[in-house]
Design goal:
Length: 154
């Protein structure tokens, strides 16, 4: 457990960020652990979420990006018919799930693929041109002299 209260006193405008961190720390212990997932950074502005969804097909999983939340839901259709098969041990979970991820501003989902029981969701951060860093020229503080252009006297 981390105490973020000293950070509230020494920063201005970051109160929402610290509130999100504080609430994430409190709910992390109560959050579900199924299905397991990895979040990896592929490049400076590219990320990938990989979820282990063994037994789920493309039709069983829905991915929705709304505002700054990415929601992945798995609803497996009941394909077992009464008496069709008898499981002696079930180690592969087939329960429904819902995972939510908070996305930073300007992060968009660029694609998703399902291969070998792993769901890959590709994300990319695209900053608007106005938000990108730009260099500022430094002047010497002296006003520039204006030069009047004209014809020479003949």
């Amino acid at each position: 457990m981390f105490d973020l209260s000293p950070l509230y006193r020494s920063t201005v405008g970051f109160d929402r960020l610290f509130s999100l961190l504080d609430s994430a720390a409190n709910t992390e212990s109560a959050s579900p652990t199924y299905p397991p997932y990895n979040i990896e950074r592929l490049d400076e502005n590219e990320y990938r979420i990989t979820m282990a969804v063994a037994g789920f097909g493309e039709d069983d999983i829905s991915i929705e990006a709304k505002e700054n939340t990415l929601s992945v839901t798995g609803q497996r259709a009941d394909t077992t018919k009464e008496g069709a098969r008898q499981l002696l041990h079930q180690g592969i979970a087939s329960r429904s799930f819902e995972r939510r991820f908070q996305l930073a501003d300007f992060v968009e989902v660029t694609g998703a693929s399902l291969e070998n029981g792993l769901l890959h969701i590709d994300l990319k951060r695209e900053l608007p041109e106005a938000m990108k860093p730009r260099s500022i020229a430094i002047g010497n503080g002296k006003p520039k002299k204006k030069q009047i252009e004209g014809k020479k006297a003949a």
